Amino acid sequence: MDVASSLATGDFRAASTRTDVDYTHYDFLDLPPGASAARVEAAYQTIKQRFHGSADEQLVRMIHEAYAVLSDAERRLAYDNELERSAAAADAELKAALDSAVKQSPRRVQDVPLPLVTAMSAWAA
């Protein structure tokens, strides 16, 4: 269940227990987007030394792939554009979900729940 459907149905537990996380190449190298080429190189060397021989093989491959993409100017530009498209799509999905939630009739403080009205009517009679 995605965040938008969780918001639309009001099931916030499903959105908060989501366990799959999309990490970016910047996350693997512990860098902010837009970091310079020198910072990419320095971060890669630091992480490579930190995990030398003691890291999971899959993690090492992801770190190498992140470095390969971020150190190549053309591949990095294409990757950054894809990140922007993904972020824009996620923003649009969230906006649509929030807008659809607003279209539902709002509950006012003065509204009394029907069971309470029934109970009070029975008690007053």
User: Segments where pLDDT lies below 50 for 5+ residues?
Assistant: 1-18
Q: What sort of overall outline do the alpha carbons produce when their principal axes are compared?
A: elongated
* H-E string: HHHHHHH
CATH architecture: Orthogonal Bundle
Which structural class matches the secondary elements?
Answer: mainly alpha
Fourth-tier CATH superfamily name: DnaJ domain
Number of helices: 7
Q: Got a strand count?
A: 0
What's the end-to-end separation, in Å?
47 Å
Structural features, described:
The protein is mainly alpha-helical. The chain has one domain: Helix Hairpins. The chain is about 70% helix and about 0% strand. The protein has helices at about 5-10, 10-15, 25-30, 35-50, 55-70, 75-105, 115-125. The protein is elongated. The protein starts with a helix and ends with a helix. Mean pLDDT is about 80; it is low at about 1-20.
